Automatic annotation (TrEMBL):
<dbReference type="InterPro" id="IPR006665">
    <property type="entry name" value="OmpA-like"/>
</dbReference>
<dbReference type="InterPro" id="IPR050330">
    <property type="entry name" value="Bact_OuterMem_StrucFunc"/>
</dbReference>
<dbReference type="InterPro" id="IPR054121">
    <property type="entry name" value="ArfA_BON-like"/>
</dbReference>
<keyword id="KW-0472">Membrane</keyword>
<dbReference type="Pfam" id="PF00691">
    <property type="entry name" value="OmpA"/>
</dbReference>
<feature type="signal peptide">
    <location>
        <begin position="1"/>
        <end position="22"/>
    </location>
</feature>
<feature type="domain" description="OmpA-like">
    <location>
        <begin position="149"/>
        <end position="264"/>
    </location>
</feature>
<dbReference type="Pfam" id="PF21923">
    <property type="entry name" value="BON_like"/>
</dbReference>
<keyword id="KW-0998">Cell outer membrane</keyword>
<dbReference type="InterPro" id="IPR006664">
    <property type="entry name" value="OMP_bac"/>
</dbReference>
<protein>
    <submittedName>
        <fullName>OmpA family protein</fullName>
    </submittedName>
</protein>
<dbReference type="InterPro" id="IPR036737">
    <property type="entry name" value="OmpA-like_sf"/>
</dbReference>
<keyword id="KW-0732">Signal</keyword>
């Protein structure tokens, strides 16, 4: 989860939650990924504002997740700005994954991934309700189902092609992955599982190994285009999840595929 509160001509903050993976044996208040750190930067008008904001974040997440890099002084805050920031930093923001929250004076923007449409509307609605009419709220949150739909629409039932019997991409396969990169970047690099599939021809275990190697090739290609490798899991399903009959050449061609699944 990334939460940003940016500095402006007036007071502002930048909160960044960086995924460090499941380490330290720590379980935060649900549901941020275990091991996330919330790095708080920006400028606030006084020490009282800094103290209240950090205390609020420590309550929303847990104290050990918060890295305080706030600066104090040199800015003029809008009326009741600190109290309004604390209202924005409500418990709902912890349900945003790979998100970004910008508070720039009286402008608030939030984006990222949430589990469903109801959660998307609830978080943005709670923020808007907590603030007065001088604030504007831009809801860029995306429900997981919508993000998956965009991935599926980009793939459009096409097959990422490899050279026969190998994990080497063909030029057409690379071109299709370039399209997927564009969508993944637009979705703010969500956590994705890449699943390799084969048809049923040949030895099952060899097919599982090939499907995994192809999924790893896709992961490497995406990473080479700037997609964070830590946000990509791979799985080799071999011939076990066909989408068409293996009795025909056309069916086998459909079964030799790469699947992109958004992870919750």
């Amino acid at each position: 989860m990334i939460v940003r509160i940016k500095s402006a001509l007036t007071a502002g903050l930048l909160l960044t939650a960086t995924s460090l993976g499941a380490q330290q044996g720590h379980t935060p208040k649900p549901p941020p990924e275990a091991g996330d750190k919330v790095v708080v930067t920006g400028t606030v008008p006084d020490e009282a504002a800094r103290t209240s904001i950090i205390a609020r974040l420590r309550d929303v997440y847990t104290p050990e997740l918060i890295v305080d890099r706030l600066e104090v002084g040199g800015v003029i805050a809008p009326p009741n700005w600190s109290a309004n920031v604390n209202r924005v930093l409500g418990a709902g923001i912890r349900y945003v994954r790979q998100g970004q929250l910008d508070i720039n004076g009286t402008q608030v923007a939030i984006k990222g991934h949430v589990a469903n449409e109801a959660r998307r509307q609830q978080i943005a609605g709670d923020i808007a309700t907590a603030l007065n009419s001088t604030y504007t709220v831009d809801n860029g949150l995306m429900a997981a189902g919508r993000a998956q739909t965009l991935l599926d629409q980009t793939l459009a039932d096409r097959v990422v092609e490899f050279e026969s019997g190998s994990a080497i991409l063909t030029p057409a396969g690379a071109n299709l992955l370039d399209e997927m990169v564009t969508t993944i970047v637009a979705l703010e690099n969500p956590q994705i599982q890449i699943v390799g599939h084969t048809d049923s021809s040949g030895n099952r275990m060899a097919n599982i190994a090939l499907s995994l190697a192809r999924a790893e090739t896709v992961k490497g290609y995406l990473a080479s285009k700037g997609i964070t490798a830590a946000g990509i899991d791979v799985l080799g399903a071999g011939p076990d999840r066909p989408v068409a009959s293996n009795e025909t050449p056309a069916g086998r061609a459909k079964n030799r595929r790469i699947e992109f699944r958004l992870q919750e």
